[in-house]
């Protein structure tokens, strides 16, 4: 009779230890996933602010490009040493390309 009681006590202790281990493991996973989510949210906020900064930088560069593009004229190109081409040839899209 005593062996059966001690056997049940051992089984209950093992079950209790397994449940405690499962609870601790679940708590560890919960903390890990919550902290990972928080880190991802912070990174996303940083990336969003960086994207806004880059977007405004692109806007500034576009406005500089437009203002510099207005200054390019034929006389300015000639002053830099560019010359007009003598023979001008163009490429056209003939029906030959469509037949291939």
Structure in a nutshell:
This protein is 80% helix and 0% strand. It has 100 residues and is mainly α.
Major sheet size, sense and barrel closure: none
Label the structural class.
Answer: mainly alpha
Determine the mean pLDDT: 87
| Total domain modules | 1
- The number of helical elements comes to 3
Roughly what percent helix? over 70%
End-to-end distance: 96 Å
Order of helix and strand elements from N to C terminus:
HHH
Rg, Å, rounded: 38 Å
Would you report the number of β strands? Answer: 0
Task: Work out the strand percent.
Answer: under 5%
Question: What's the shape?
Answer: rod-shaped
pLDDT < 50 stretches:
none
Task: Characterise this structure.
- With 100 residues, this protein is mostly helical.
- It has one domain.
- Helix content is 80%, strand content 0%.
- The mean pLDDT is 87.
């Amino acid at each position: 009779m005593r062996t059966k009681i001690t056997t049940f006590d051992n089984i209950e202790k093992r079950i209790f230890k397994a449940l405690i281990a499962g609870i601790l493991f679940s708590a560890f996973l919960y903390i890990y996933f919550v902290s990972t989510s928080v880190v991802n949210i912070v990174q996303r906020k940083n990336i969003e602010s960086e994207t806004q900064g880059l977007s405004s930088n692109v806007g500034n560069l576009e406005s500089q490009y437009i203002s510099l593009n207005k200054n390019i004229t034929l006389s300015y190109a000639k002053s830099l040493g560019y010359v007009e081409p003598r023979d001008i040839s163009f490429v056209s899209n003939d029906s030959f390309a469509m037949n291939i």
